[in-house]
Amino acid sequence: MNSACWRGRAVGLVAVMIVCAAICASPVGAAPGRAECRAVPSKILGHPVPYCVILPSDYDTDKASNYPVLYFLHGLGGNEQMLLNSGGMNMVQDLRDQKRIGEFLIVAPDAGRSFYINSRDGKVRYEDFFIREFLPYIESHYRIRAEKKSRGITGVSMGGYGALRFALRYPDLFVAVSAHSPALIEKLPNIKVSNDQAAAVAAVLGKAFGSPVNAAFWERESPFTIVKDGPRPVGLQIYFDCGTDDEFGFNRGNEQFHELLTARGIVHEFHLYPGGHDWEYFAEHLPASFEFQSHAFDLATPAK
Q1: Residue 219 · residue 250 · CB < 8 Å
Q2: pTM to 2 decimals?
Q3: How far apart are CA 85 and CA 304, in angstroms?
């Protein structure tokens, strides 16, 4: 792939997110319910990590209740406010009002361009932070049922990759995982690239997998490898989807991942829908993901 194409895709994805945020943004308190944005201290990363949380509608009035939690992982070019700034608060409240989901917390941490892994150079240990510091901090500072059956994870694009990877690597922690257009590539192309092309790839993937990207490290960290080499994820419910016109070709990677899960006898739900790799696609399908998670939490909703 030439450098202009890589740069164009990277810039295009970020541009879509910025435009959607500008068009759809609403103040945190615009809809019923409440959200807040704070930061978690981290010794592992060496700096505080911002996060935002959408609280259950009755969180402030029903002090006796504890709730399930859904962790939302943003995509490349986003941050902890990606869901809120793209109309997520209104979407969640609409789903609650329509009784399509129950009450649970939605927590979104900032992850930069980390791909939610420990970087190849060891300088950004995001996976260690998320598992060892972030989950314990959130679940000790909010009224959360800190148990597998009440803990889910979801994400879009880079965040979808991270969500699948966390859930499959730590199936004892999560009851369900969902992902929209996860950045799945079974194998990186085995080609030599120029310095300009390597820089373009790094602009899309960042330095998490090395600069230039190290194909062996990519494969080692991949959800494909976790499924191939790891034990079957007992008790983990899995949902993912992708657009048929995904600009990054992730639709093929998602199909291959579906085929791998099927071959391994791992029960899952997978869909290919019309659409590209943008917030318009994510927003259209996030409600299905949230309903999937609510069902996994065994939160009763009226029959349709």
Answers
A1: no
A2: 0.86
A3: 30
> Minimal CA–CA distance to 40: which of 52, 30, 28, 32?
52
Q: What domains does the chain contain, in order, with CATH numbers?
A: 3-296 (3.40.50.1820)
Question: What are the structure tokens assigned to 191, written together?
Answer: 């080609």
Reduced to 3 states (helix: H, G, I; strand: E, B; else coil), residue 69 is strand
Alpha helices in 177-299 (DSSP H): 195-205, 215-221, 223-229, 250-263, 279-296
**CA–CA distance from 262 to each of 84, 153, 158, 168 (Å)?**
35, 21, 23, 15
Predicted confidence (pLDDT) per residue in 134-185, tens digit? 999 999 999 999 999 999 999 999 999 999 999 999 999 999 999 999 999 9
Sign of CA dihedral 257, 263, 267, 270: positive
| Total residues found in the chain within this entry | 304
Q: Assess contact for 117 and 56: CB atoms under 8 A.
A: no
Distance CA 93, CA 33 (A): 7
